[in-house]
Design goal:
6 helices, elongated, mainly alpha, single chain
Amino acid sequence: MKTYWKFIFKILAIIIWLITIFKFSSQASSESLDLSNKFMYKVVSILENKELSKEKKEQLSKKYTLYVRKSAHFFLYFVLGILIFWLFCDIIKIHSLLVLLTIASCCLYAMSDEWHQKFVDGRTARLFDVIVDTGGATLSTTFMFMFYKDIETSKYKKETNRKISELEDRIIVLEGKDPVKVHEEEKEHKRKKVINKK
């Protein structure tokens, strides 16, 4: 039951994020540009700890608006990559397929999102934006895969050590000894060795 609700939560998180991306893409060009500039002005204002003049705002708009907008693309799909990988890692156990399907899913949504923008006032479909989006998803998928692999390796080591320990206990029992007593003696022996070294 816990696994079921965890799966549902992952699906809902992805749906909410897809809707968020769709809403940003549905903004008219002027509205989207205004939002990017407001965000940039706010950040710079906080960093400089003062209100920005009209001239300063115009300078920022000319220099950095494009970078802010592309960074937003990258961030949105970076998060999407994390969410989709998080879902797929419970379903797909083949590592290469897990990575490829995560990136492919993000890329397909990016393509559909750019196509949708063709019908929004002042917006256009750009291949470069798809590349930026896919780049964000690829980076987050790579990070998630490395993290996921570390967890898997850790679990495998723990399971291997547990099986070795069980096997050792069986051998001790077959020898007619008490496993608990033997382990206690081993611990005591190790403790004495550490004390002697000091």
